[in-house]
Input
Amino acid sequence: MLDKELVVSSSPHIRDNDNITKIMITVVIALLPATIAGIYYFGFKSLIILLTTITSSLITEVIFQKVRNRTISLKDGSGLVTGLLLGLTLPPTLPIWIAIVGGVVSIGLGKMVFGGLGQNIFNPALVGRAFLLITFPVKMTEWINPVDGLSGATPLNLLKMEGIKTNYFDLLIGNVGGSIGETSVILLLLGGLYLLYKKCIDWRIPASYLGTIFLMTLLIGQDPIFHLLSGGLMLGAFFMATDMVTTPITKKGRWVFGIGAGIILVVIRVYGGYPEGVLYSILFMNGLTPLINRYTRSKIFGEVSK
Amino acid sequence: MKDKTFSFKGGIHPPYSKELTESISLTQALPPKIVYIPLQQHIGAPCDPIVKSGDKVKIGQKIGDSQAFVSVPIHSSVSGTVKNIIDFPTPTGSKVKTIVIESDDSYEICDTVKPMGDINNLTSKEIIEIIREAGITGMGGATFPTHVKLSPPPEKKIDTVILNGAECEPYLTSDHRLMVEHPQKVVFGLKAIMKAVNVNKGIIGIEDNKPDAIKNIKKIIANEPSIQDAVLKTKYPQGGEKRLIDAITGRKVPPGALPMDVGIVVNNVGTASAIADSIQKGMPLIERIVTVTGNGIVQPSNMIVKIGTPFKEVIEQCGGYSGVPGKVISGGPMMGFAQYTTEVPVIKGTSGILVINQFDAYSEIEQPCIKCARCVDVCPVGLLPIKIANYSQKSKWDEAEEYNALYCIECGSCSFICPAKRPLVQRIRLVKGEILAKKRSK
Output
């Protein structure tokens, strides 16, 4: 009897074989179709931007962990997801050094100062993008037309400034100006459905977010379909508003999050100075998430209302 | 017509690994040479020994009892001589006073063991007394004295008895084999319980991964208008008492309340079978079915083992270890207890002995919580396990209590599902202990 060799621990003694790395890889796989489409539409430069944001994100993470004497945790894949997401929200003409700054700010200010993975309040990729948008407002809003690469404008810009409405088909396939990874609605939806199928995201957030935008734009007399198909909404709804770390853990809370973000988005797009509101709508609701969690606890099994 | 399949909200689908033993017939383990019978194998007051060193005892003879209501006597599972009464480890992790008996290999049965006659001539009171005297506890693992469950205060009106044959713990197949091979004993026991609590509605709940058990039980109850079967969706923890009641009847037992508060008594199918033995043969609870299984066992089996037989003897009879054992668990992998020694005896609540080889025995390194909320989704009680575990880690007992930590049933679904491999239920257990300790000291 080798009794002294026996491992003693508290139950349960079996674990599910899913883990953080697998979840992050699933997100990357879900983003691939839209990423490839972005590179196809906006050219080789976009690939360089994506690789830059990913690399600078990962390096920033390593530096922070080295300095703080923590375990290097690159293999959890979260830095990769942040870097890729950030890159996908950038204009395809952005100077490389600005992309590097974006990666540093995303991981450094968006994630590591809070204590690393799981501790941050705001979506790191969006923190990076918000920083760049405020710091480099001109470079961050220079757009090109797909394929031909001539300078152009995004559909939301065209609507806001010139009152021109882009046709649905071009919006669906992504044949419009915009950030590298945000234009192809069909492929982003495909990725979103894959995440739903893999149970990596909760349907409640995209459903309530998109549903609110649809209803509100309809009510105030705008074209709801156009609003759903344009800008970074699909990328935001399926890949950023669903970020596990920065969104509510309760199901009711997820409804609140989606509805709140939807209202903010419509207000910004229709009445605000910016043509696009995905970024700030999600960041704002990220900030409210701890509060939402607190007030949306459901009743426990068998509990009756007091 | 297809049966309606009953279920509950939350829960997980762990790998069940029941194929190792689910089609293996029950076998009687070899009689042990020395048995170690702990004076406390149940929830409640420990027994006092009523034998002393050197006494001769026979099979089924009472060797320990208590005056307390919440307690049951213990009996000798062999005939032989009492060698000693010592402190000895039990599978639940504590050391308790244990009667050591050396068998004389004569298998003499005590005179008190005799059939109790026709059940129709027994009163409710008599049945409950037989059950107590036979030392019967819940056989699902919690080992709460059965006669206490069957004696609700008069103001609680009981209308239904549910037999729990869900056996939702992975690996375990002891209830499964019992229902396949001895369905008549299970049904007899159910009728005895129904008579004891004076109701005429009995339901046997079985998960749909045991079609042969469902078939055999259905055959026996075909002519019993007062007994039905309920096919349950295979999901862990379907066999948790409150989940089971909810799934079958739709009644929700409030937090802190008991099944009797919604008019229901739940017992395990193994308990029903033990009750059948106590009435039909007069034999107290001196043996039980133990599923011996896992990838660390050469020959996984369903054994009928005498109470008091050391784990190591049972393991040896199943071909011993295959490779180097990593963990030996009493019970199933979700709620069972890892053992530090295989000297511990099989007791009334030992539903399984699970041996996991060394490669699967170590837990993975804990990573930061990514707030995926899978623990929230699977919690059958509707708690926020991550919140409670975090408060536990920060020693914030009051906050944890405010988040209903005490209502955690410790099923382990949260720890199972966590992709960051965090020890959630383990931390909740810790905080529950702290909250209760604080309440007691007030």
Q: What stands out?
A: The CA atoms of residues 113 and 282 of chain B lie 5 Å apart. Chain B has three domains: 28-112+284-360, 115-280, 374-441. Chain B has a mean pLDDT of 94.
